[in-house]
Amino acid sequence: MATAQPGIFAPDQPHRAFLTFRLAMPPENEALADALAEIREIDDVDMVIAFGPKALTLLNIDAPDNFHGFSTLSSPDGRFHAESTQADLFIWLYGNHSDVFDASFTTTQALAKAADVIDDTQGFAYRVNNDLMQFEDGSANPKGELIQASALVPDGQAGAGGSVLLTQRWVHNLPKFDALEDDEQSQVIGRDKETNEELSGDAMPNNSHVSRTDLSLEGVAAKVWRRSSPYGNSQQHGLQFLSFACDQRRHQIQLDSMYGLTDGVTDRILEFSNAVSNHYFFAPSVEALDALYSDDL
Length: 297
Prior knowledge:
Elements: E1 15-23, H1 29-39, E2 46-51, H2 53-59, E3 73-74, E4 81-82, E5 89-95, H3 97-110, E6 115-124, H4 146-151, E7 163-172, H5 174-178, H6 182-189, H7 209-213, E8 216-217, E9 220-221, E10 225-226, E11 229-232, E12 237-245, H8 248-258, E13 273-283, H9 286-290
Antiparallel strand pairs: 1-5, 1-6, 2-5, 3-4, 7-12, 7-13, 8-9, 10-12, 11-12
Helix pairs in contact: 1-3
């Protein structure tokens, strides 16, 4: 049985770093593998290492057969877009502030000869588990045994023990959202702002965020394991979305629904937030990472 990277499920920590890289040209698998070996020795932080299609091919890492990079999405009415910014390597670090800073610095220095940093986003805990829109984030996450079942590729499949990761950096327009009355904010999200309970019956709009993302695939609830984080400062801020799934289709049907590609109805949250970076990565099992440093590479 393959072993998932522990960082996918480790408890939340107050400080988070989201590091995105593009491979240096020409890419060198030995330089990248050596750098990753050094990074994995970092103590005092939890981490997840994930790869885009190009890096998976370079390092000969098995991924699910249907894994692919992010393709640009546009709503039918042309109002909303999620441009593909697909990169090659993603590293998520989280822990205490000083430890995360040190680990981020060590990581970028180790990878200097193999990959270029294209995004370094620092996240933080905000009012326990809230997004900056003042609603609890990740409320619909699976519970108990369903967590790993939702997040990990099953045994017997290509990439077993790994997880398909969707990362997006959303920039919020908080003044526009905050101008809404609480009841209308609740309708945008699909949850009561005060109680965090899902709206029900006629009170739940079909264009709320919950309505557009609470979906089924082949008769099974398409749950994903969200580990998102607020980020930013007073000038630019939002949500660094981080979501792990056993099947990439679980991510894609949610995105297609949000952008109106299934029925023409778009998610109202798109009126108040814009996804400025969009990537798919694959976080392989511990055994797959260990194999990078064998003599067979």
